[in-house]
Amino acid sequence: MTAPDPATSLPLPRTAWLMLLALTTGFSLSQAFRSLPAIMAPPLQREFALSAQDLGVFAGAFHFSFGALQFAMGIGIDVFGLRRTVLFFSPLAIAGAAVAAAAPSFGWLVAGQVLNGIGCAPAFLVCTVFIARSFPPERFAAVSGLILGVGSIGLLLTGTPLAWLIEHSSWRAGFVALALCSALAWLSILVLVREPGGVPARGERTPLLQALRSYGELFRLPHTWGILALALVTYASFLSLRGLWLGPMLIARHGFSLVQSGNVALAVSVVGMLGPPLFGRLDPGAGRRRWIAGYTLLLAVVFALMAAGPGAALDVAGAIAVGMLSGYMVLQYADVRAAYPAAMTGRAMAVFTMAIFLGVGLMQWLTGVVASLAPAAGLEPFRVVLGAIALMLVLGALAYRVLPQPRAARAAQAAESGA
Question: Is 342 exposed, middle or buried (0-12, 13-18, 19+ CB in 10 A)?
Fold first, then answer.
């Protein structure tokens, strides 16, 4: 999964953009699947009598299955190519949405989410690998940021539109709609996407066991651990709020209706679309990029303020601020790309993506646990949830700064200091 070295191997710009946008449709649907619990939580709680911990399990099921398969997705891309990999797995998201729509019990609902996570597992990884293979290295951060923004259209679908559909029909109709959209995304990839550089011949493919063992090289590099520590908490903080607790919090804390909470979710999603392209264009370069730990601490402050001072205006403003600030996370992808040689780019992206979404599943599950325990301690559940997220962000930022840094980052910092 290497980036092509010769400039002549890059596809024509118009062709590359068309294929990348087709791949982004799958990523957009994965964004929709992972954020739907924030709007679906209230009707699901009513129908299946779910606790806060159950909601954490429901939301986390997608991300655990999504994250756990990133190794397999990276190997699949390496051995079979990104087009074949995404076309093979994506139909499982269609099946998962159908299972969830017909779910007679909570267990079937979770099973549908697991299938959705598996089906969406290659969605963003194929985008990042395609960008690394098809665009010049200096454009990686900007193009990745743009795709993160465009892919956030999926978040818009699970704001006001999903809330309106649920209020006028049912939560099951929401899953049916996502199944139909997923089918259209699969067809667009089938028709428009071709493998960058062509599909490797059988004799040129990396043997499966060799590809699996090659991941060990990543974990032997000391700077990998700091990168993964930060990856576990950054996107997880945004998605734990936007994708799980935002709707329940606004409804329980402030008496918002489902559509009103959907409107707030829509606003958060819109500003969330603007953040990645903005931060991608403002990429300060390898020497200063690792100051993304500072953005992480700022994000922790926002969550702490929401936890300490509950009020409708503060919660809405804080959620919108989280949506905008989360755009800095695109710099983590550029940080990963710069931290490893070209031959390790695909594997590094796979491991990084795995950490991001396992972190989402872990944070959503943990916050579900603390929300369930909070009333017994006389505490307001959402205050504990937001405080726990703030604490995890602080711990991730500290680990990222304290653990060893990549040689490239240290060299760039030294060069800038000398200049």
Answer: middle
pLDDT at 176 over 50: yes
**CATH architecture of the domain formed by 11-196+212-404:** Up-down Bundle (1.20)
Dig out the tokens for 249 from the structure.
Answer: 């919090």
Q: What's residue 103's pLDDT?
A: 95
Mind listing the pLDDT tens digit for each residue in 319-370? Answer: 999 999 988 888 888 888 888 887 777 678 888 888 988 898 899 999 999 9
Domain extent listing, the chain: 11-196+212-404
Whether 262 and 160 have beta carbons less than 8 Å apart is answered as yes
State the Cα–Cα distance between residues 401 and 27, nearest whole angstrom. Answer: 30
Question: Which among 337, 261, 257, 268 is positioned nearest to 31, based on CA atoms?
Answer: 268
The whole model's pTM is what? 0.76
Query: What residue type is assigned to position 393 of the chain?
Result: L
Q: Is 328 left (phi over 0), alpha (psi -120 to 50) or beta?
A: alpha
Residues in the chain: 419
Helix (H, G, I), strand (E, B) or coil at 318: helix
DSSP structure string for 62-117: HHHHHHHTHHHHHHHHHHH-HHHHHHHHTHHHHHHHHHHHT-SSHHHHHHHHHHHH
